[in-house]
């Protein structure tokens, strides 16, 4: 079963360009095993979220057990955010699970 993580934080909108560039640089380094896709979302008012779709709970747990801290909360902290995490199983989707 796929797992969706949502990491949210408030980051000053004045830092948007740098935050987006840092997220894109993070993606360019490659995704951890089991991370199927990840998106940065922002509302233009300083409310940000990173939604990441994981193959399964085991893939998420393996990333979280790695010595490096999870990338999404680390990114928001770098820009002064106080990240919050929600982990949800995907119960139905427009596409078949990967």
Could you give the topology of this structure?
Elements (H helix, E strand, L loop, with lengths): L2 E8 L5 H13 L6 E8 L4 E8 L2 H9 L5 H8 L5 E6 L9
Antiparallel strand pairs: 1-3, 1-4, 2-3
Relative helix content: 25-40%
How much strand content do the residues show? 25-35%
Give the spatial strand order of the biggest sheet. Answer: 2-3-1-4
How many strand elements? 4
The span between the termini is 9 Å
Q: Which ranges are low-confidence, i.e. pLDDT below 50, for 5 or more consecutive residues?
A: none
Please state the CA-atom Rg, rounded to the nearest Å.
13 Å
Q: Provide the residue-averaged pLDDT.
A: 96
What best-fitting shape do the alpha-carbon axes yield?
Answer: globular
Structural class: alpha+beta
N-to-C SSE string, H for helix and E for strand: EHEEHHE
Largest sheet: 4 strands, antiparallel
Tally of helical runs? 3
Give a brief description:
The protein has helices spanning 16-28, 57-65, 71-78, and strands spanning 3-10, 35-42, 47-54, 84-89. It is an alpha+beta fold.
If you had to describe this structure to a student in words, what would you say it looks like?
It is a single chain. It is built from 3 helices and 4 strands. It is α+β, with helices and mostly antiparallel strands and 98 residues long. Strands 2-3-1-4 form a 4-stranded antiparallel β-sheet. Strand 2 (35-42) and strand 3 form a beta hairpin. The protein is globular, with a radius of gyration of 13 Å.
